[in-house]
Amino acid sequence: MTKTEIAAKIKNMISENLRIPENMLDDDAELFGGDIGLDSVDSLEIISGIDDLFGVDMTGVDREHFQTINALASYVEEHVEQ
């Protein structure tokens, strides 16, 4: 699975689980802060969604891996079981 495919699945999961229109979810938009404005509860949804989609446990992962969809996709790409 390519990083682009992973990013698309993450974007879709965030859109569905957090009810954010996909057109607002640019791959480089800051998820926590000014661009999208997610909070710590939302991060738990993302952790759960990534575990369900890819089997990658993100519990306790450093914050820099949560900044953007691209950052999440890179982390998943590095840690997913092939």
From TrEMBL:
It holds the Pfam family PP-binding. PROSITE patterns: CARRIER, PHOSPHOPANTETHEINE. Residues 1-80 form the Carrier domain. Transmembrane segments: none annotated. Keywords: Phosphopantetheine, Phosphoprotein. This is Acyl carrier protein.
